[in-house]
Request: fold
Amino acid sequence: MELGGLIVKAGLRYEKRALLLGLLIDASQRIKADEAERTRLSELGAKAFSDDA
Reply:
């Protein structure tokens, strides 16, 4: 899936590019510092994908 599709799936289609980049930078820093946060976000994403099936 392309990045644009992920942005749409997350409900962020109309957000500004600067905000989206800020979100990604913040998430990158958080998951590097906190394995529990990485796991939580991975589970959240996996659930969103499984809801499509």
Helices lie at 3-9, 17-33, 35-50. The mean pLDDT is 93. DSSP finds three helices and no strands in the chain. The two ends are 15 Å apart (CA to CA).
